[in-house]
Amino acid sequence: MHTENIKQEAYQLLDKLPEQATWDDLMYRIYVRQAIEAGIKDSDAGKTVDVHEVRERFGLPR
To answer: Does the predicted model carry a pTM greater than 0.85?
Structure first.
């Protein structure tokens, strides 16, 4: 999901912000976008753990 044109993607994020948005709002949206792309990249590379294994590691119910 890596974008070829970061500037274009940034413009799209800006266009979706409300007029009264703050710098924090913008930074949050950028952070979320970056985190999602990193997660997809990790998933594509097989760097994930099955939810059942995580629940077992932390002693959580299934």
So the answer is: no
